[in-house]
Amino acid sequence: MALIDDSSEVSAYAGGARVEDYLALLKPRVMSLVVFTALVGILVAPGGINPLIGFIAIACIAIGAGASGALNMWYDADIDAIMSRTQNRPIPAGRMTPGEALSFGLILSVFSVTLLGLATNWVAGGFLAFTIFFYAVVYTMWLKRSTPQNIVIGGAAGAFPPMVGWAAVTGTLSWESFALFLIIFLWTPPHFWALALYKQSDYGAAGIPMMPNVAGETSTKWQIFGYSVVLAAASLLPNLLGFSGWIYGVVAAVTGLSFVWLALRLLRAPNDVSMRRTARTVFTYSLSYLFVLFLALFTDHIAMRLGVI
C-alpha cells in the first residue's frame, strides 16, 4: 500500500530539502539518548578499547540510530501528517519526498553497519544491522499499527545500543550487557504510555493502537505502575552482577523509588485533568531518569577505576 500517491506527493513537495531537514530525519533528541547509553556500554565493558576505535564505534551507532529514524519517518509519513506533534516533520510538511528519506536511511544503514564491522568486529556490526532492522521493519512496519503491545516488543530496538557498544569492545554479549538492555526495555512502556495518556487523541486519530486507546486509561495506569516497580528492581542488576558500586546503587534506588511514586500518583489521579497533568510529569521524569541512571553507572565505573570506591 502506497503511503502517498504520486499526485499528492508532487503537489505537497516544495522541493529543495535543507540540511536541517536531513538532520531532523535522524531524530537527534532520540539519537542523543541512544548514543549516551551505547557510550556507557562501551566504557563499562571489560578490556577497554582504543579511543579512536571507540569514537568510530559511537559514530556508527549514532548513524545507525539516525538511519532507523529516517526509515521510520519514511514509512510513517501518512500518520505523521495527522498527529500534531509530528506534522512539521520533513515529509508531511512537504520539504522532502518519501523517496529521499528512504534513500538517505538505506545509505546510512549500510554505511554504519559496514564501518562498525570493519572497525571493531562483526558481532557488533551484525547486531547493529539487526537493531536497525528491528526498529524499521519489526516495530515500524509491523507492530506499531497492529497491536497495543507495539511499544513493549518494539522497545527492544531502543534497548539494544548498550549491547552493541559492549560487543564493539568485547566481541561478545554477556549477562552484564543484557542487564543494561533490560533496564531500557522495561523503561520504554511506562515512558511511552505516559505520553500516550495525554496524547491519546492524536494516536486515536492516526489509528495507532496505543494502550490507552485500546485497553483504556485505568488499565494503562496500572500497567505503568507495574512496569515501574519491575524497572526499579531491574535497575539494581548491575550491583547484583558486580559491575557497579555504591554510587550507582544509591542513585538507582532513589530514582527507581521516585519513578514508582510518580506512577502511583498517576494511578490515584482523581480526575481527567489531574491524570493528564501527572502523565506529562511521568513522561518528563522518565526522560531524565534513564540519563541519570546511566550517568551514575558511568560515574561509578570511573570512580572504581580510579580506586575512589
From TrEMBL:
Keywords: Cell membrane, Heme biosynthesis, Membrane, Transferase, Transmembrane, Transmembrane helix. Signal peptide: none annotated. Belongs to the UbiA prenyltransferase family. Protoheme IX farnesyltransferase subfamily. Its main location: membrane. Pfam families: UbiA. InterPro entries: Protohaem_IX_farnesylTrfase, UbiA_prenyltransferase, UbiA_prenylTrfase_CS, UbiA_sf. It comes from the Bacteria. The chain crosses the membrane at residues 30-49, 55-75, 96-116, 122-143, 150-169, 175-198, 219-240, 246-267, 279-298. It is found in: Cell membrane. This is Protoheme IX farnesyltransferase. It comes from Devosia ureilytica. Carbon 2 of the heme B porphyrin ring is defined according to the Fischer nomenclature. It is an enzyme of class 2 (transferase). It is a multi-pass membrane protein. Converts heme B (protoheme IX) to heme O by substitution of the vinyl group on carbon 2 of heme B porphyrin ring with a hydroxyethyl farnesyl side group. One of its GO terms (biological process) is heme O biosynthetic process. It catalyses: heme b + (2E,6E)-farnesyl diphosphate + H2O = Fe(II)-heme o + diphosphate. Its EC number is 2.5.1.141. One of its GO terms (cellular component) is plasma membrane. GO terms for molecular function: protoheme IX farnesyltransferase activity.
